[in-house]
Amino acid sequence: MDKGRRLSQLVTLELIAEAKKQGIKQKDVAKAAGISAPQLSYYAAGVRGLMTLGTFSNACTFLGVDPRHVVGRAQDKLLSEIAHPSTSAIAITDADLDAAEEAARRSARPRARVDRE
Question: What are the distances in angstroms from CA 4 to CA 34, 39, 58, 116?
């Protein structure tokens, strides 16, 4: 994963961790940011696209956090991973695990079938 994509992922994970700390659901953060809950999960997993500045700004405003602090914490984690690549797997946080579990739960839900004629 390239550094830009990883930084975007870490920024998203920081936002999710902040929401969890405040007792706010990810779906509420996503709605306030102007994206779907699955899209937020994709950003957190680093699998689809990069969060736009507008989306990031909306999420920070909703959570009442300073965007500079969010990016700063994410950047510190990225620099730590770069400096210590063999330990980056250990740097997985509870927010990382929660985001992965939530994404897995969403994808495992049975979906209604629609017959088309």
Answer: 22, 18, 20, 42
Which are the contacts of 5, defined by CB distance < 8 A and separation ≥ 6?
A: 46, 50
Summarised one tens digit per residue, pLDDT across range 63-95 is 999 999 999 999 999 898 888 876 555 455 666
- Tokens describing residue 117: 């004629």
This prediction has a pTM of 0.71
Radius of gyration of the chain (CA): 15
Q: In sequence order, which residues have a C-beta less than 8 Å from that of residue 107 and are 6 or more positions away?
A: none
Q: What is 3-108's CATH topology?
A: 434 Repressor (Amino-terminal Domain) (1.10.260)
CA atoms within a 13 Å half-sphere pointing along the CA-CB vector of 1? 20
Q: Which residues contact 27 (CB under 8 A, 6 or more apart)?
A: 37
Measure the CA–CA gap between 103 and 94, rounded to whole angstroms.
Answer: 14
